[in-house]
Amino acid sequence: MKKYSLTIGWLYPELMSTYGDRGNIIVFKKRCEWRGIKTETIRLDAGFSVDDLKNCDLLFMGGAQDRQQQIVAKDLVKKRKALKQMIDNGTPGLYICGAYQFLGKYYREADGTVINGLGILDLYTENPGKGSSRLIGNVAAQVLNNGLIMGFENHGGRTYLGKNVKPLGKVIKGFGNNGKDQTEGAIYKNSFGSYFHGPMLPKNPEFADFLIKLALEKKYSSPINLSPLPDSLEIKARESIANRLGIDL
Ligand code: GLN
Predict the structure, then answer these.
(1) CA of residue 246 to ligand 1 center, whole Å
(2) Domain residue limits, the chain
(3) 3-state SS string over 110-125?
(4) Per residue in 44-76, pLDDT tens?
(5) Ligand 1 atom nearest 125 alpha carbon
(6) What is the pLDDT of residue 176?
(7) Fewest beta carbons within 10 Å, which of 39, 60, 222, 229?
(8) For every residue of 62-93, which 3-state class applies, written as one string?
(9) Atom 8, ligand 1: residue with shortest CA distance
(10) Is the CB of 198 under 6 A from ligand 1?
(11) Is the CB of 177 within 6 Å of ligand 1?
């Protein structure tokens, strides 16, 4: 059997990694390893080289507090061209919360400070400020072809999608993008933005495999079939969240 390998690029692990986001990297690594797929994870902290970024087959970036987002914004803007090229070119990636906000046009903080986004995805995010609460709690959304995804959200920003992106899912329980229009996350080419922390992928193994498959198919330009994994613990984790949310799986 052909030996496959993937290079995973972890953007800003030092500054952008809240509510267990690093668990998503562990899931990518383990689910590949269990199938004999070699992985290398490259940590792309502030000041990283664009060449390192370009070597990656699958990208991940987590969320953060506004303070960290301000620091990261200064570095990220220098990488805009390379990242946009990769995203436009279909490099698969998962971008959680603060990272998701960065892919849009801007994020306006509660005090009115605007953090410019990369403007790669047609969306923007605003925190309504005084009198509005953070959107916190367990959350579930219905995803086309892939059942229910589940996670935990904690964000002040409300994200609104433009017509050039599709939502990742429809909120069943929780708030999602903005607590109003029942959308959760966004899809643009092979890039996926989401508010699901928790981390997201241990509770959503099908989605993890979907991303791994996308990355392998893009790298090797051929259809890939991933062997099934038992997922008994993952199923338990899903059941536990479903119970807390009062939904049937
Ligand atoms: N700071 C952003 C907000 O509050 C993102 C939070 C996060 O990544 N969890 O909306």
Answers:
(1) 26
(2) 5-245
(3) CCCCEEECCCCCCEEE
(4) 999 999 999 999 999 999 999 999 999 999 999
(5) 10
(6) 98
(7) 222
(8) CCCCHHHHHHHHHHHHHHHHHHHHHHHCCCCE
(9) 63
(10) no
(11) no
